[in-house]
Amino acid sequence: MTTARDALLWAAGVAALALSVAVAVTIGPAAISVPDVFSAVVAHLGGGETGLTPLRDGIVWNLRMPRTLLAAVCGAGLAVCGTVLQSLLRNPLADPFVLGVSSGASTGAVAVVVLGVGGGVVSVSAGAFAGALCSFALVLLLSHALGGSADRVVLSGVAAMQLFSALTSFVILTAADAETTRGVLFWLLGSLSGVGWTDVWICAAVLLAALTVCLAQARTLDAFAFGQDAAATLGVHVARTRLILLTVTALLTAVLVSSAGAIGFVGLVLPHAARAVVGSGHARLLPVTALAGAVFLVWVDTLARTVLDPQEVPVGVVTSLIGVPAFVLVLYRTRKAAL
Does this model's pTM top 0.70? Predict the structure, then answer.
C-alpha cells in the first residue's frame, strides 16, 4: 500500500512538473500555446518540422525552454541540498548556503566582472564556481581545526559567509562603476536570464549525480536524525559520511549558483514542506523534495520575468518574498505540533 501511494505521489509530482514547464514556456509577450511547445520539443528531439515560424520556434526552444528547465533543475538541486544539510547537521535552519558556498561564488563572479581576473578568458560562471570551491575548502579547514562536529561546520560556514560577503562588498564599492555594480548586484540576487542549453545540461548532470549519491545514503541520513553518536552505534562512519555528503552538496550548490546566482529560501523552506507530506524517511523525502523544488522555482521564475514586464525582478527577491512568510508558517506549525 505504501509503495503504491509513493508511486502515485511521485507520478503526480512528475506530471505537475511537466505541466508546469509546458505552461510556463507559453507565458510571455509572444503568444505561444502548449501545443506549440509540444510540437517544438518533439521536432527538436526527433527531427522533422515544428510547424512554427523560425521566430516562434526560437522563442520556445532557445529562449524560454532552457530558462524554464534550468529553473526546475536549480529548484530541485537547492531543495535536495537543504534536505541533506538539515538532516546531516541536525539543524532545521540549515540551507545550501550555510557552507558559505554562495558567498564564495559571489566573490569569484565579482572578481571576474569587476577586477578582470582571468583576462577575459575566464567566464563569470567559472569564476563563481572557483570562488565557491575556495569558500568550501576554507569551511572544511576551519571545521576540522575546531573539532569537526556538526555545530563547528555551521559556525565555520557562517564565518566563511561573512568573510566572502565582506570581500564582495569591498570590491564592488572600491572598483566597480555604477553600471557594473547594477549588473553584478542583479546577478547576486539570482537571475536566470541569458542561460543556454549548456547551462541546463551541466547543472542537470551534476544534479543527477548528486541525487544518486544522496539516495544511496538515504538510510544513513535517517540514522543521523538520531544524532551522530547513535549513527556511529548503528555502524555509520560519521566523519567520512559527513565529508562525502557535505562535498556533494557543496559541489551541487556551487554549480547551480555559478549558473543562476544566489537564490535563497528554496533549500530552507521546501524540505520542511515535503516532510509534512511524506515524513522524514529520506528514500521518499529526497525525490519528493526535488520535484517540489523544481515546480516551485519554475513558477517563481515565471512570476519574476512577467510581473513587472518588461522589467525583470531578480529570482532571489521573489523567493525571499514568498519564502519568509512560508517559513514563518512552518515554524508556527512546528511549534503548534510540539505543544
Answer: yes
